[in-house]
């Protein structure tokens, strides 16, 4: 189709808007000065080193990873069977139940954090760590249901029936025939959940305490008191990880799956 | 003087593979011309070049003496009917049909008049307020046609308009199209892969293969005298024999059996003999010329005839339709007579 | 699948969901409905208070402006992507999605760099001699809007381009064959048919901006509170947990209301005809 020049120009501007700020951060990460400067006047890698040296970063990074993985695994344990059941029954009830599973998306993250803090931590004296875990579980569950659900939607269930007709018992058939064929959907769901849990801030804002802090929250605190390129360096590292994860998702399910 | 001219049209996206190569087509005003061929032959591309949706890399497109090669789609004033109908789902039948007229900034009353008139011609008056998703395939087809006709186009272009309809509807609709076309006298290009449909309503047919027109003639002429092996196959000729010219009207096959023909060959290249399965007869013992011997293979039942696959002495397989009064069994020997009036000479296809 | 079997697989998840979300929500938020002198008095107080009302209006205003800007920037971009050849489409989608996968702290931080008093815009303008003192771009509503647009534009692009991809190319060609140039074809055919998708995108952007925390906190600061930063401030800084709860419930109701209303409009407009 013959392309309109004005449209192309406009779109180029839009995409520049999206990418230039990130590019700027990347450049400042290599700056030699002690404050953030653009353009950089000298080149240095010391801020990257600083990232790894800072104790709070290391600790909260590990914490966020563990929480993201744990929350995602729990969500998968509960969510995959649910998604399976929902995809095999198509009725008003199952539609309603599906929307129940997706309901955490309607509640603002900050409210979830707030409510869990009050309920679990203050009222029931549950350790903050478990509150954080619960909050992140609520973040990841909808992703599992949605992505695994749509994978199952494209699954041809007559394959399962064939397994039954050949003598396979139902639970066995699920593990031998269904799961392997939706593995790409499951791994994509895992990645998406993990990324969204790791990146989540509102939920984590309230659920911090002595020794427990999510990585993004630590980052935010750092920014409020320091304005040096360490943050830029962290950003660059995180962006690299994101790119790697995106490539993995693309190889398994394709970029479009991330559009939800 | 032709109304529509395509002269030496080339279409290729990478200069290596040509979808259309040096295509020439001339259509007279008021004619209904069909482009017939298997998928991939270039018929749709040809139509879309005329419509302006596809740019040609070489050659020109001339309408009534004016060169329209570079004119953009929305300025061409052609009525295009898409295979999928492409009706606007968010507009009613009335608004779909009025769409083109509204763009031409005509008076509201005039638009109303024209839309109502064309809806009447196409039998759609009662559906005026309905939406496409509430209508059947045949009805949608008629809306697509009405929408294309109401703008009083210089050309009507139809891209396999009937292929999504069931058999009975197809037959009814093709007659409708022919009737409307004749009534309005509008020059029409029609793309299809269905030979019967094409032959039933066209004034002229262009049989296409691999981006080239192999034969362009009236349906009757093509039916009786296909020019190439491809065209012959396409219109129902099944049996092909390699022949060498011996004399005028006498040809020989590899076994030196002689064949007489009465229709002269078009060119020196026309050396393939072909005949319809239903034109072959049983040879009585006195015949020597125009005879092939073989053994009966598989027999299938066609209703009026049995169709026999006959394995010839030289190894080829021929398809022969014979009346059901006599039955021939597998393994039986048989002598086939190819009547000289029915044996046609065709050339090899252009590759 | 037998009904009973389905329930077995679904019940554990639902139970945990209830305990982890529904129960806490009810326990913390319901009391606000009856606290005070008469039922809903806390809410009446909220809406009577100028300070709170200002914040609510600010939040909605920011969300609205962000949504409109995202539409203006996003719809042409989505259209462009949907008409691209396959290989470019994947690349452009990936470029659009990448910011979505990046931490919102980073994305907001990017704008601190640009809008700050020592930031890029001010540096350039100072160097060009256009201003003497730095412009106050950061810690304003403007900054929040820019940051929010930056945050949610990819979401709009991804949603709308998906919808546009599903519109047959035939439609554009049909409109053109009837005499419409490309702009008119877009306005009269593609745009109306994409409206349901545009509305869905709008809902995502609006509710997202409404409930976002990071961007308003980093780019708006404590002088420009929105509902989500208000909750945090009320609870952690001031210790007024009950007001925070009131604000929380209002946020939820607002979100649900917006989703319901606009989903309804989208459903009614969905005439793509299946």
What does this 3D model show about the protein?
The complex is a heterotrimer of chains A (260), B (351) and C (274). Chain A is an all-alpha fold and 260 residues long. Chain A is built from 12 helices and no strands. Chain A is globular and about 70 Å long. Helix content of chain B is 24%, strand content 32%. Chain B is built from 8 helices and 21 strands. Chain B has 351 residues and is α+β, with helices and mostly antiparallel strands. Chain B has a 6-stranded mixed β-sheet, with helices on both faces. The two termini of chain B are 30 Å apart. Chain C has a single domain, classed as MetI-like (MetI-like fold, Orthogonal Bundle).
Question: Can you lay out the helices and strands and say which pair or pack?
Answer:
The complex is a heterotrimer of chains A (260), B (351) and C (274).
Chain A: H1 5-28, H2 46-53, H3 55-88, H4 92-101, H5 109-123, H6 128-153, H7 158-165, H8 170-181, H9 183-199, H10 202-206, H11 215-225, H12 230-252
Chain B: E1 4-12, E2 18-27, E3 32-36, H1 43-51, E4 58-63, E5 66-67, E6 78-81, H2 93-103, H3 108-121, H4 137-149, E7 155-159, H5 167-184, E8 188-192, H6 195-201, E9 204-209, E10 212-217, H7 219-224, H8 229-234, E11 239-242, E12 244-247, E13 250-252, E14 258-260, E15 272-275, E16 281-282, E17 291-301, E18 305-312, E19 317-323, E20 333-337, E21 344-346
Parallel strand pairs in B: 3-8, 3-9, 6-7, 7-8
Antiparallel strand pairs in B: 1-2, 1-4, 4-5, 9-10, 11-15, 12-13, 13-14, 15-21, 16-20, 17-18, 17-20, 18-19
Chain C: H1 3-29, H2 31-34, H3 41-48, H4 50-82, H5 86-101, H6 104-115, H7 120-127, H8 141-165, H9 169-177, H10 182-211, H11 214-220, H12 227-238, H13 241-269
Helix pairs in contact in C: 4-8, 4-10, 5-8, 6-8, 6-11, 8-10, 8-11, 9-10, 10-13, 12-13
